[in-house]
TrEMBL record:
Its EC number is 6.1.1.-. The lineage of its organism: Bacteria, Pseudomonadati, Pseudomonadota, Gammaproteobacteria, Chromatiales. One of its GO terms (cellular component) is cytosol. Belongs to the class-I aminoacyl-tRNA synthetase family. GluQ subfamily. This is Glutamyl-Q tRNA(Asp) synthetase. Its cofactor is Zn(2+). Zn(2+) binds at C113, C115, Y133, C137. Residues 322-337 have a biased composition (Polar residues). It comes from Thiocapsa marina 5811. SUPFAM superfamilies: Nucleotidylyl transferase. L-glutamate binds at R21, F22, A23, P24, S25, E57, Y191, R209. GO terms for molecular function: ATP binding; glutamate-tRNA ligase activity; zinc ion binding.
């Protein structure tokens, strides 16, 4: 693990209070869409002399592809990414998620729900990302019904925040989503809860990620406020689509990024992020040494989607069997919770926030 007083990676000296992260799901090899998010978060952290962390979002083990997590790490290393601290794994943090849910339950901010997805689809009206939960179980389970999920009591009112790329965002979660699930019917904690706890545990101050998660951000802000956590700033880069307009991660055209010849993919991602063209004669290390001081998040297009060059992945090939020497330091992962009251939140002001008196949650390991 590097000392904060030492020169940072790629010649950027020192470290600031900036803490960013990249959090892929190990459902397959790294594709070009994920590379775009990784590059933006990495360049923004390093340009601000910050810490950049890696987290594997492997909470839902049924979706995990065996070996994908290690392949993603090897690919990132081969592409020149250097991360700080140990890699965090959601599958090892279930106690922390349970503690957070217990805190919300103790504060009266959740309730058990006996509705199936089919019942919600029949009873709920259409919302931003599917049916809006109609509040069937909000006042209590009907006689003879057993709990399937645990839902958050979404308060009324608008969440307004300034996204570092997409500009001002406003959403009424109660109207657009309704009371959302925190623990699924299979017992797995929902992404919205897990990511909020993860960002608090790692002390993340700025989240740079894909625009497919832009609509989720107000839900995460509500949970941060309810738990008394620090709130990071947000910046959402355009989602990468294939030639047919499908999200690249769900497209058959989403071939893995070629770790054996990384510069074509890096240059293509850099261009889609709106940055000035890199000199033609740069090798891998020189590319990053040049790119980080040149990074400007203000140049990233303020659109939610872009089409991938060639419809899939520049110079994509099948996953390589080569073993790459890891670049990152592998110090012990710190699970120290970074929490704060409302007056210590990071990021732009949040208007009309509920739960102004919520104190920080305690998520001690059980």
């Amino acid at each position: 693990m590097r000392d904060r007083s030492d020169p940072g990676p790629n010649g950027v000296p020192g470290h600031s209070a900036y803490r960013g992260r990249f959090a892929p799901s190990p459902t397959g090899p790294l594709h070009f869409g994920s590379l775009l998010a990784a590059m933006a978060s990495y360049a923004d952290a390093r340009a601000n002399r910050g810490i950049w962390l890696l987290r594997m979002e492997d909470l839902d083990r049924t979706r995990e592809v065996p070996g994908a997590a290690d392949l993603i790490l090897r690919t990132l290393s081969a592409l020149g990414f250097e991360w700080d601290e140990g890699v965090a794994y959601q599958s090892r943090r279930t106690d922390a998620y349970r503690d957070a849910l217990d805190t919300l339950q103790a504060r009266g901010l959740t309730y058990p729900c006996g509705c199936s997805r089919a019942e919600v689809a029949r009873a709920g009206r259409s919302g931003l990302e599917g049916p809006v939960y109609p509040g069937t179980c909000r006042a209590g389970l009907a006689l003879g019904r057993s709990a399937r999920t645990e839902r958050f009591r979404t308060p009324a009112g608008a969440i307004v925040f300034e996204d570092g790329i997409q500009g001002q965002q406003e959403q009424r979660v109660d109207d657009a989503v309704g009371d959302f699930v925190l623990r699924r019917a299979d017992g797995i904690h929902a992404y919205q809860l897990a990511v909020v706890v993860d960002d608090a545990l790692q002390g993340i101050t700025r989240v740079v990620r894909g625009a497919d998660l832009l609509l989720s951000t107000p839900r995460q802000i509500l949970l941060q406020r309810a738990l008394g956590f620090s709130r990071p700033g947000y910046a959402h880069v355009p989602l990468v689509l294939d030639a047919n307009g499908r999200k690249l991660s769900k497209s058959l055209a989403a071939a893995p990024v070629d770790a054996r010849d990384p510069l074509p993919a890096l240059r293509a991602a850099w261009a889609l992020l709106g940055q000035i063209p890199a000199p033609a004669d740069l090798h891998l290390d020189a590319f990053w040494s040049w790119a980080i001081p040149e990074w400007r998040i203000a140049r990233v297009p303020s659109k939610t989607a872009v089409v991938c060059p060639n419809g899939s992945s520049p110079r994509a090939r099948e996953p390589s069997a080569h073993t790459f020497t890891p670049r990152p330091s592998n110090g012990p992962q710190s699970d120290r919770l970074q929490s704060a009251g409302p007056d210590q939140r990071h990021g732009p002001a949040l208007l009309r926030e509920p739960y102004p008196d919520a104190g920080p949650a305690s998520l001690g390991n059980r």
